[in-house]
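This entry is listed below:
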Amino acid sequence: MDNKELKCAAEKIPVPKEKVLSAISKGINRGESRGHGKKKKILAGALSTAAVLGITIASGFVSPAMNHVLANAPLIGGIFQEFNDQMGVDLASQNAVTELNQAVTKNGVTVKLTSAYFDGSVVSITGFVDDGVDNGRNEEGEVSFDVNFEGNNGDNDPWLNGQSRDVRKVDNGYNFQWKMDYPHESFKENFTLPVTIHNINGIKGEWNFDIPVKQDQNSSVAIEQGHEYPDKGGSIRIKEILTAKESSSLVYETTQKYKGDDIRISKAVDEKGNVYRFGNRTILEESEQEGGYQSAVRTEMTKLKAGITSLTFYPQINVTAPREEQLLDKRTFTLKSERLGLGLQVNDVVQKGDQLVIDYQLTGLPKNISEHKQELIDHNLEYAFWLVDKDYVSEIDPDNPFPPKNHGITLNKVKVIDQATVHYQSTFDLNGEEKIEGFSLEDTILQFEFSSFVSSEELKPFTVEFPVEEE
């Protein structure tokens, strides 16, 4: 088959816009979860799709169907194709993206913000930074921003919770995109978002911008239905679903008897079999009530299909328990978590110079643990132990739990002694980056976190009916 025949055949292939671009986006971005601490595997199928599409475009064989998809988006849509942002591509094709032309130069580095959109609960900002950033501390090709929004400072900025960042090298600099979850309880259709970049790649300067952000008014479906789980000491109530142009948001409330328990929704299915997935969550409110601990949550959601009459929600619960502790004035002891049914049998505690070695076994774990589960247990043991100076235990902030500097050690090196009997050794470096000044066993408390060894539990699904619209 010659080039002409191949091109003719390619033109006859229908190109599913949403599926192709979504697959590319999911495949490439799978490793860049907008949450923290979870490793995700890239889907081979998505990468194959991206590879095939890349070869096709590079070879000049682009079917008219794909040309139509790309042509329908305004010029600004190209930046979202670059970042594999399907929502941005679709919004750009509907002229729902605000084009920007704000540039600030400080200390030899120019930053230009190029676009912003607000859909559902997601805010996106794109921009360009010139190659002056290459004079900073980072490795070549790396760009890192120290940025805050709305006059906030440091990591306590609510706009940074779940924020994702992407950077692509281009001529004379780098294009970038920031995606944030709208952090406030009530939405504003139009508002100005102050942005301050404090430094880029270690180059200091105050790059200040005021970004106009707008979206069409969300449509809302009030539901006010839920389900109780008395055996788990919790309940969940669906409040409403907000739908924008390309996404939806679910607002719900949970009540837990035990502080630290977390009830969330893994998926929903409508009466037609459509499956809805959920993304980042924003905690709108937390309080302690007479019946337990209450939270109001808004979470990203696949766009709600028009005309559906019900949704079945599939919730799950992550159960927590307080850290159990023991003063290290004895060499053998047992810690137990009654709620979780787990135990820690410490067989020996020995100090060897600048090292503390604890020999122990876990009890109460299920039999026939999978290889993957075993790897998680081995990994979690590196973080499950804390050594804390007994005089500083009360200074640990429950909202940001971490031992005071030079009075706690939170990491250890794990050695498997016998996996069949769940037998391990953990070695703590007493003279490492983390340390306890004037360390002595008699003045040190061992704390152990059992919750990391308990998987989330699926709860019984429940169905909510949508209110009937009046004629």
DSSP finds seven helices and 26 strands in the chain. The first strand starts at residue 98 and ends at 106.
